[in-house]
Design goal:
Helix content: over 70%
Order of helices and strands: HHHHHEHHHHEHHHH
Number of helices: 13
Largest sheet: 2 strands, antiparallel
Oligomer: single chain
Structural class: mainly alpha
Shape: elongated
Number of strands: 2
Strand order of the largest sheet: 1-2
């Protein structure tokens, strides 16, 4: 095989890289091409290369039981290819230019050795550029000379296609992460608002039931008052019937006060819910502004990439880069806005805890109200019996 990078035999490259893959000692079998086309072996190798980036959450997205289903294989391979490119960009700080990316459709459906070789070559690039690169390079140097030669040629070819990512791109990545975090916080606030609204609705139903019970008690009390007014002894507070009447009236007044207190608590919950809705609206507006700024930043990044590849416009590129650097300074304002959103989210959580505490108190008050209701019914029954006795004594 010739030493020029353009003359790499892709099938021979695939065989040599499969030999290299076997040095990782992964759980899945990797002895023949079909063992690698489902992507499971490659995912396990990537996790060994950088377990912090290719963590359990990422590897769980790779389906292990795909059988001969080439569509599931292609789905796995697309996730792995995206993970490799993202790892090069976000962790290694480089992007691969002018390198023909592997056709995952040919790998998954037809077990194409040449395209599989390109896929394994990208994984090789991750290994020799990661933090443990010395360990992996030493492993390569201990392999058979013919395999070692092919692997080193593949590394040289890949390194010739890699270019560092512009420093400004890290700011864009940071902005994107902050924007995602803000969206997650907004979703949490919306979920909290819906939960509070549900609790307010339940409290409204409880208050309505209490009001209905109050109306029923007032109607029964009115009937008792009419009956008691017909008895001469009820007007005498010293008589047994008069004393019982005063006692019942006192208990009824207490129940009315408790009902009024619950209604006031319900109004407080409604006001707080309205305030939360207003703050969530403000959060949405700020989120839209952040999204617009992120889109603008992405647009600026794309324009910088185009200018980077236009050597005949170097002077213009330098002027525009200076302008973009000034715009990047405005990212400090975005960070302050995100910090403000975090503080507001903390306030929402505190408000939620307070609302839950007040709701527990309201539920406890409802239990007391049920007890008072039962006592009123018992007292009414006693009053009815006493009224009957009083009328019989009068006769």
């Amino acid at each position: 095989m010739m030493n020029t990078l353009d003359s790499v035999d892709r099938v021979e490259l695939c065989d040599s890289l499969m030999t290299w893959i076997q040095t990782f000692g992964v759980e899945a079998s990797c002895k023949k091409i079909d063992d690698l086309t489902n992507g499971v072996v490659m995912a396990q190798v990537l996790q060994k290369i950088d377990p912090a980036y290719f963590d359990e959450n990422w590897i769980n997205r790779i389906k292990t039981e795909v059988g001969d289903n080439w569509r599931l294989k292609i789905s796995n391979l697309k996730k792995i290819l995206k993970g490799i490119l993202d790892y090069n960009h976000e962790i290694l700080g480089q992007q691969i230019n002018d390198f023909i990316l592997p056709d995952v459709n040919l790998v998954g459906e037809h077990s194409d050795a040449a395209e599989l070789g390109r896929m394994l070559q990208l994984i090789l690039g991750c290994a020799v550029n990661c933090e443990q690169k010395q360990e992996y390079i030493q492993t390569i140097m201990m392999m058979e000379e013919s395999v070692q030669h092919v692997v080193m040629t593949a590394i040289q070819e890949l390194m010739s296609k890699e270019t560092p990512v512009a420093a400004g791109n890290y700011a864009y990545v940071d902005l994107d992460k902050q924007l995602k975090k803000t969206v997650e916080e907004l979703n949490d606030a919306l979920a909290t608002k819906e939960e509070i609204a549900q609790r307010c609705h339940e409290l409204d139903m409880q208050v309505a039931a209490l009001q209905e019970e109050k109306g029923s008690l007032l109607a029964e009390n009115q009937i008792l008052m009419e009956r008691l007014n017909q008895s001469d002894s009820i007007e005498d507070p010293n008589s047994p019937a008069g004393r019982r009447h005063l006692q019942l009236q006192s208990q009824l007044d207490q129940l009315q006060e408790e009902t009024f207190r619950l209604e006031a608590a319900k109004d407080d919950y409604r006001i707080r819910c309205e305030e939360l809705e207003k703050e969530i609206g403000e959060l949405r507006g700020q989120n839209e502004e952040l999204t617009s700024l992120a889109d603008e930043a992405q647009s600026l990044k794309d324009e910088m990439d185009v200018l980077r590849h236009s050597s005949d416009k170097v002077a213009k590129l330098e002027g525009m880069v200076d302008s973009y650097k000034k715009k990047l300074e405005d990212l400090g304002d975005l960070r302050r806005q995100v910090k403000l959103l975090e503080e507001k989210n903390t306030l929402y959580m505190q408000n939620t805890v307070s609302l839950e505490e007040e709701l527990r108190k309201a539920n406890a008050a409802r239990g007391q109200l049920e007890t008072y209701k039962r006592q009123v019914v018992e007292l009414q029954n006693r009053l009815s019996e006493e009224s009957k006795k009083s009328r019989q004594d009068g006769i």
